[in-house]
């Protein structure tokens, strides 16, 4: 163990040096969302400036710090001062920051905040952690995201990395499971099964070789917590896997990750290589006598592979179809051997529990749902991004305090992806924990929270999810294969304006049959979006069926677009965006819209600044 | 080409049937799609039937069976993108390119594919051209984005 303490000492002194930096350091958020917002261009500009102006600046990459809507985020650390962070840094802004802060010494451009862990303002700059989006968050699993270089193991070690693993070796396998039991951690993949129990079952299962699989097949559309976490702090996941494997007695681990996440895969490959170099993977890890190796398996795009037995089939090179349980994977999984499958977030939480103690972790959250949970807060909310909050927090706090509310009146929030449901205004004070969400008819799921305002049509949303699940159904169970297709057909009929009231009864009946007659979670939960929207937004179904109108003006067959002559100023913005040339008219005079040419693409509706074009619901005879 | 094919095959242990999906992925990376010939080769290499290889390959949406265009457009139709108008984008792309999802334009400049989620939900709606993600795309921006790719 001496060896590792040397590494730790070296890492700590390197980190210390970085803190007292003689040269300024610029770190750029280079997660997928940063890159999508143009972080690459910013990076190139900064690099070019460094060469051109001969600047002494250290440039480094970090993961996503959370508020995706402010990307690209750039943080600057001047010698001996705390890191300060700037938002929406495009090439131009980067140039300005460098010229003001590093060349001319006249800092006029205000940063968003400073990143010092001590949350007090410093030299007139507010703390980033006290911003409305961050102040109610509790960052445990995300603690390193956006702060350390995800491609540098030294920085992870300097920030308490692998302390959890050392603790685990000290406690022994049973001790680890006990600690996780005290923490009250439940599976973060959605179902919420107690992690310690799963591990105990697998540990007790007979068999010499066992497997640990990390489920990183984040298939829920609208969720990206695992991607961000892996991109921002891959070592936390890998350390968690080491601890889990040690507890259950597995020597072989797999990470089943979506091929759609190339950056996350790349970061994991780098991290695994660095751990091998430091002898934190392979044989006799930290002289404990424990051996472990990890292989990456790229998923090939099948939602159902998020289900445990389907995932195993996929790793075995078969079609990803679930099988009936028992036997459960903990006794007979991959290649017939005992296998534990844990979600990314569950595993990445483990090092923190071992480092700080299970009791500490159980101090967050509620009686039955302990700890914190990450959520992807997206949709029609002002502040979108990745957040981590203690369980039991209310939806209202998440959507309105952290997310800053919606622009148009709030209508619904969708949790749990295609397996979840839509909750309405009445549920805003519902505490977010496993039991409360299930009671309301939805599920915690992996953590996607999609906020919808008055512009969303709930029938369309339900149809969207059913279309998704019917496409993703593996086809093994007839109720799921045929039932979801039938439900989609009926919903298609309703959004076309051809629905009848009796269709709603058929939907209810089908929902029940699919739930009862399906083997796996996909089928058992697929009808949830329809059941919840029927329950909480019945008036929208009635409007589509009886009045043949779509109140949100979304369903294409039920709306026409028209120019309101009194409001149109003739600014021509809509003329420019119309892809089919349906809108015409000279400048400063009300425009004409040719319904024959109109394809209802909504471009004019979105660009109009005078509310002159409105998708008006009409009656179809 | 023949040389690179056998080098791909050599990388994978033929006793392990679990290598079927990684093999398919490797071939698709190299050739852009899964051809008839590829399926025959894999089937011989792993000692499984061609129908088994097809059965697995068609189960997963990642695998394509037609040659792709020079630029691949993937439009995200995840929930967040749907709520932010992803469907309207798809519609516009179809009109601009004159193809349906799964098809390639005649001049082979673009192919179009719909995907369930690219994980950039906070910046929805997004489309991915080759490996570049374009965020907060609007019907208005599409023409400009397409013009960047030849």
Topology:
The complex is a heterodimer of chains A (621) and B (150).
Chain A: H1 2-19, E1 25-29, H2 32-36, H3 39-52, E2 58-62, E3 74-77, E4 83-86, H4 91-103, E5 113-114, H5 132-135, H6 153-158, H7 163-183, H8 195-204, E6 211-216, H9 225-232, H10 234-248, E7 252-258, H11 262-277, E8 293-299, H12 308-315, E9 339-343, H13 344-356, H14 358-362, E10 372-379, E11 385-390, H15 395-402, E12 410-415, E13 421-424, H16 434-439, E14 448-453, H17 458-472, H18 478-496, H19 501-516, H20 521-525, H21 528-536, H22 538-545, E15 559-563, H23 573-577, E16 583-584, E17 592-593, H24 603-607, E18 613-617
Parallel strand pairs in A: 1-2, 6-7, 6-9, 7-8, 10-14
Antiparallel strand pairs in A: 1-3, 3-4, 4-5, 10-11, 12-13, 12-14, 15-18, 16-17
Helix pairs in contact in A: 3-4, 7-8, 7-10, 7-13, 9-10, 9-11, 10-13, 17-18, 18-19, 19-21
Chain B: H1 2-11, H2 20-31, H3 36-46, H4 50-59, E1 71-76, H5 79-83, H6 86-97, E2 110-115, E3 127-129, E4 132-134, H7 142-147
Helix pairs in contact in B: 2-3, 3-4
Give an overview in words.
The complex is a heterodimer of chains A (621) and B (150). Chain A has 621 residues and is α/β, with parallel strands linked by helices. In chain A, 41% of the residues lie in helices and 14% in strands. Chain A folds into 5 domains: 115 residues, Glutaredoxin; 206 residues, Rossmann fold (3-Layer(aba) Sandwich), CATH 3.40.50; 82 residues, Ubiquitin-like (UB roll) (Roll), CATH 3.10.20.600; 88 residues, Up-down Bundle (de novo design (two linked rop proteins)); 62 residues, Alpha-Beta Plaits. In chain A, helix 11 links the parallel strand 7 and strand 8. The termini of chain A are far apart. The relative contact order of chain A is 0.08. Helix content of chain B is 44%, strand content 12%. Chain B is an alpha+beta fold. The longest helix of chain B has 12 residues. In chain B, strands 2-1-3-4 form a 4-stranded mixed beta sheet, with helices on one face. Chain B has 2 domains: 58 residues, Arc Repressor Mutant, subunit A, CATH 1.10.10; 77 residues, Glutaredoxin (3-Layer(aba) Sandwich), CATH 3.40.30.10. Chain B contains 7 helices and 4 strands. At the A-B interface, helix 2, strand 10, strand 14, helix 17 and helix 24 of A face helix 2, helix 4, helix 5 and helix 6 of B.
């Amino acid at each position: 163990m001496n060896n590792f303490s040397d590494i730790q000492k070296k890492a700590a002194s390197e980190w210390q040096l970085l803190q007292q930096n003689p040269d300024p350091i610029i770190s750029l958020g280079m997660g997928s969302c940063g890159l999508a917002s143009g972080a690459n261009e910013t990076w190139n500009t900064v690099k070019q400036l460094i060469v051109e102006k001969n600047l002494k600046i250290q440039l480094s990459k970090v993961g996503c710090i959370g508020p995706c809507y402010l990307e690209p985020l750039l943080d600057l650390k001047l010698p001996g001062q705390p890191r300060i962070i700037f938002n929406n840094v495009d090439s131009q802004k980067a140039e300005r920051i460098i010229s003001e802060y590093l060349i001319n010494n006249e800092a006029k451009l205000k940063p968003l905040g400073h990143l010092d862990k001590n949350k007090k303002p410093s030299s007139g700059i507010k703390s980033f952690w006290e911003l409305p989006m961050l102040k109610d968050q509790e960052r445990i699993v995300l603690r390193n995201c956006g702060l350390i270089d995800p491609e540098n193991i030294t920085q992870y070690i300097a920030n308490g990395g692998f302390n959890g693993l050392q603790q685990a070796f000290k406690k022994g396998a049973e001790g680890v499971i006990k600690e996780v039991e005290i923490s009250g951690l439940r599976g973060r993949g959605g179902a919420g099964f107690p992690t310690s129990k799963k591990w105990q079952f697998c540990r007790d299962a007979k068999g010499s070789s066992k497997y640990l699989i990390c489920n990183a097949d984040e298939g829920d559309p609208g969720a990206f917590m695992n991607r961000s976490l892996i991109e921002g702090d891959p070592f936390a996941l890998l350390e968690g896997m080491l601890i889990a494997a040690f507890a259950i007695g597995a020597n072989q681990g797999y990470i089943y990750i979506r091929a759609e996440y190339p950056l996350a895969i790349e970061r994991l490959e780098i991290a695994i290589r660095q751990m091998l170099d430091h002898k934190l993977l392979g044989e006799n890890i930290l002289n404990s006598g424990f051996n472990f190796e990890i292989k990456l398996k790229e998923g090939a795009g099948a939602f159902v592979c998020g289900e445990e037995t389907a995932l195993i089939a996929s790793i075995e090179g078969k079609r990803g179809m679930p099988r009936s349980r028992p036997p459960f994977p903990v006794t007979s999984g991959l290649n017939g051997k005992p296998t534990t499958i844990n979600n990314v977030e569950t595993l990445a939480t483990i090092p923190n529990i071992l480092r700080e103690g299970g009791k500490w972790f159980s101090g967050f959250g509620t009686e039955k749902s302990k700890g914190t949970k990450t959520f992807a807060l997206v949709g029609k909310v002002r502040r979108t991004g990745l957040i981590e909050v203690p369980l039991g927090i209310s939806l209202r706090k998440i959507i309105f305090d952290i997310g800053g509310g919606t622009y148009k009146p709030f209508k619904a929030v969708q949790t749990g992806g295609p397996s979840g449901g839509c909750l309405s205004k009445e549920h805003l004070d519902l505490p977010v924990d496993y039991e409360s969400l299930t009671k309301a008819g939805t599920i915690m799921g992996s953590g996607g929270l999609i906020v919808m305002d008055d512009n969303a049509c709930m029938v369309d949303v339900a149809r969207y999810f059913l279309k998704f699940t019917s496409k993703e159904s593996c086809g093994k169970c007839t109720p799921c294969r045929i039932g979801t297709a039938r439900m989609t057909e009926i919903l298609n009929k309703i959004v076309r304006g051809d629905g009848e009231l009796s269709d709603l009864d058929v939907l209810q009946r089908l929902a029940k049959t699919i739930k009862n007659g399906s083997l796996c979670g996909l089928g058992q939960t697929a009808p949830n979006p329809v059941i919840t929207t029927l329950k909480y937004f019945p008036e929208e179904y009635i409007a589509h069926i009886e009045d043949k109108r779509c109140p949100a003006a979304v369903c294409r067959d039920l709306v026409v677009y028209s120019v309101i002559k009194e409001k149109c100023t003739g600014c021509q913005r809509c003329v420019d965006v119309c892809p089919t040339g349906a809108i015409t008219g000279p400048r400063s005079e009300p425009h004409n819209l040719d319904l024959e040419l109109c394809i209802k693409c909504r471009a004019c509706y979105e660009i109009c600044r005078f509310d002159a074009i409105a998708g008006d619901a009409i009656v179809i005879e | 080409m023949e040389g690179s094919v056998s080098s791909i095959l050599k990388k994978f242990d033929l006793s392990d049937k679990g290598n079927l999906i990684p093999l398919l992925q490797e071939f698709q990376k190299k050739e852009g799609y899964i051809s008839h010939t590829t399926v025959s080769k894999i089937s011989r290499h792993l000692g499984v039937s061609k129908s088994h290889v097809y059965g697995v390959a068609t189960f997963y949406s990642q695998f394509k069976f037609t040659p792709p265009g020079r630029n691949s457009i993937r439009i995200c139709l995840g929930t967040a993108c749907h709520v932010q108008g992803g469907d309207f984008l798809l519609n516009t792309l179809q009109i601009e390119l004159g193809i349906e999802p799964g098809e390639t334009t005649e001049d082979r400049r673009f192919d179009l594919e719909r995907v369930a989620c690219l994980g950039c939900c906070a910046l929805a709606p997004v489309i991915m051209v080759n490996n570049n993600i374009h965020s907060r795309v609007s019907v208005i921006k599409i023409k400009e984005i397409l013009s960047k790719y030849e």
